[in-house]
Write a structure and sequence with these properties.
It contains 3 helices and 2 strands, in the order ββααα.
């Protein structure tokens, strides 16, 4: 599956911004906050309208793509999860 979202256009990581956690460019909204809302089943439209009106669908797509890239490039062990 190919994604045409350039993550760097939407997400940044800087040690002096939000304790070095990935955030959306030009904001202090941490990516994990949006991912948690998605995990809770909140639709993208509601996330934008109710929680973060400064974001767009492209921001949310970039967050999902970013999360996917992390899992492709790192190894994780979840003890007892399987």
């Amino acid at each position: 599956m190919q994604n045409h979202i350039n993550i760097a256009n939407y997400i940044t990581v800087h040690p002096r911004v939000c304790h070095g956690k990935p955030c959306f460019k030009g904001t202090r909204i941490m990516v994990y906050l949006v991912l948690e809302l998605l995990e809770a089943g909140i639709p993208q439209e509601e996330i934008i309208r109710r929680y973060y009106p400064q974001l767009t669908h492209k921001h949310i797509e970039a967050a999902l793509h970013y999360a996917g890239e992390l899992f492709k490039t790192r190894e994780y062990a979840f003890q007892g999860a399987l």
